[in-house]
Amino acid sequence: MGAAYWRGLEAMTLTVAAVLAALLLFGIFVAFDGLNPVDVYRVLYLGAFGTSFSIESTLTRAAPLMLTALCVAIPARAGLLIIGGEGALVLGGITAVLAGVALAGSPPGIAIPLILVAGAAGGAAWIAIPAGLRQFRGVNETISTLLFNYIAIALLNHLVSGPMRDYAQTLKPTSWPIEPAFMIGTIPGTNVNWGLACGIVACLVAYVALRRTTLGFAMGILGGNLRAAQMTGLPVARLVLIAAALGGAAAGLAGAVEIVAVHGAASVSLVVGYGYAGILVAFIARQNPLAVIPVALLVGGISASGGLLQRRFAMPDAATTVLEGCIFVVVLASNALYGRIRLLQPRAVAPA
């Protein structure tokens, strides 16, 4: 068996062990609150996967998580730590609304794809800005993308409160709506919107692009050793911008899907933390686009079970956030063990 097999097995083993350890920590946390951890775990399962309704809720929440996780995973291939998925999602939603309003009266078969492309382009441009600052001005991309999240949210609040506001909506500031004909609805036979299909397809395409193409190979060299990439003549600046833009496009697509599949207009409802939860998904998946799919289902299920935990045990809805935080911390800590577990290292083949 090759070294790649053993590396994959070690990564999967460490991730599973980290999630189990995080569940144990969460069990201790709820035990101090006087609750039975086994009962809490059972309700967590019921709220995530126990009924058809909970499964549909999990799938609905997992769809944007897949796309925002790619906003972290794709740039990570080139050695970038981008945490601006929340801002890119918001910008994707804003540009999707602008495109939808501009395309009013167009056939839905033409307008919907253009709206999705516009959302992806908005997210790509938003994340490309801090990537350019990093490459040409030495600004740390992690800090700048985090700050860009707040700028994007402030921009959203400004636009829906004035320049783009639909004054027919009085309950909360909301942008102009897109035409009802541009809404994409749900997958037949379910209450899950088509964002799930978009997320799965995007993860599969990203996996193939990063692992089976020249561009992905070049990004891997850049992410592994900047000096080696420079010595081999790779266009480092271009690769950095492309990696960041592709990640931003994925998160921007998530924002566009939220518009055409859920909200129909931009508002503060776009800011629900999908971008930040996507960071957790990407790290648990260890930046592997293929692993993002099941991990997004796990995190989506944890989030979907929050309401049931609140009703059954009078726990605050933020209890699931505590569990997600435990998983994030333990997964990060488990990275220190990577390459140190002797049983999971490649076996040397004895000479004949």
Describe the structure.
There is one protein chain. The chain has helices at 3-31, 37-50, 52-77, 85-102, 108-137, 141-161, 195-212, 214-224, 226-231, 236-263, 274-284, 289-304, 306-313, 319-334. It is mainly alpha-helical and 352 residues long. It has a single domain (36-314), classed as ABC transporter involved in vitamin B12 uptake, BtuC (Orthogonal Bundle). α2 packs across α3 and α11 crosses α12. The model has no long low-confidence stretch (mean pLDDT 91).
Radius of gyration: 21 Å
Give the CATH class: Mainly Alpha
- The percent range for helix content is over 70%
Q: Cα distance, first to last residue?
A: 17 Å
Q: Please tell me what the overall shape is.
A: globular
Order of helices and strands: HHHHHHHHHHHHHH
Largest sheet: none
- Quick one: how many beta strands? 0
> Hey, roughly how much beta strand do the residues contain?
under 5%
Tally of domains: 1
Quickly list its features:
ABC transporter involved in vitamin B12 uptake, BtuC, 14 helices, mainly alpha
Please summarize what this structure is.
This protein has 352 residues and is mainly alpha-helical. Helices cover 72% and strands 0% of the residues.
Itemize the secondary structure elements and their pairings.
Layout: H1 3-31, H2 37-50, H3 52-77, H4 85-102, H5 108-137, H6 141-161, H7 195-212, H8 214-224, H9 226-231, H10 236-263, H11 274-284, H12 289-304, H13 306-313, H14 319-334
